[in-house]
Input
Amino acid sequence: MAAGSLELPVVDLASPDLRSAAEAVRKACVGSGFFYVANHGIQDELLDAVFAESSKFFDQPLEQKMLLQRNSAQRGYTPPYAEKLDATSQFQGDLKEIFDIGPVGDADMPNDPNQWPPKERFPSWKDTMKLYHAAALAAGKRIVSLIALSLDLEADFFQNIGAFDRPSALVRLLHYSGEVNESDKGNYGASAHSDYGMITLLVTDGTPGLQICREKDNYPQLWEDVHHIEGTLIVNIGDLLERWTNCVFRSTIHRVVTVGKDRYSVSILTTEFRILLKGFQLPSLFLLKKSDGTFSCEKTSRINSEVALQLIDFRILC
Ligand SMILES: O=C(O)CCC(=O)C(=O)O
Ligand SMILES: [Fe+2]
Output
């Protein structure tokens, strides 16, 4: 159970040496599945504004927040205890409260499923979130290019196969209360889980709490603190990319422990950096290692027993 100390690589997005940066990404993705990104291009002022708007929203009484309760399109407010990321947790649910925001169009869309706090009291809320959504997505695309390079693919590989065509990445504002009831002793801000998308980009207010477990099948599990590094994003691999790479890249379980202090963070889950196969919520491509050592991409629709065998080989090879 004890938290160890972890050193994760810092990948510099402004590095002129993209090959070395990609190599660092590969090592991190094969190792812990987590790394930091510096020079990500998201302005400090924008991040400050996002955190200010976030705490202003969460500071409201519960009844006010519940007016924007998460809808069927998964946009809006989720109160404490409503989500339980670790189904085996003995508690009613996680302590965090959440606000989810999907892509925001340029014009005020008539069918925008997003929910917004009232303009009179939150005049700049929507514009701030809109700007952040775009900035985080732009950073995400650059990181995905590095990930492509790290797999010996062309930098624009994911773009060319259409992975960015409908990127409905979800910005998630999170608040972990500093006050924990006696009955919640041992409960988590966010219980153990892996993320389901391609990659997740995370910014925190610097308050500790995030931990990862690199070997989830080892008992007792070792949980290690992910330290805050000012000015960086924390990036982690999600289940989708783990599956695309046939488990070579790792979608590592993580959790947030309570530290007796309010904690705010913002994540963006790149859920739609994927190609959907006719309505199936399944990733539709896999990366295969060919006999000459290079990678190729296979659509699942073309997967037959021969390809499936190659997938198994790939897992063994790497
Ligand atoms: O708040 C954090 O540090 C982690 C959030 C997280 O794991 C998530 O949004 O999936
Ligand atoms: Fe997560």
Summary: The pocket of fe (ii) ion (ligand 2) is lined by residues 193, 195, 200, 254 (CB under 6 Å). The mean pLDDT is 83. Helices lie at 18-31, 44-58, 62-66, 125-150, 157-160, 239-244, 305-317.
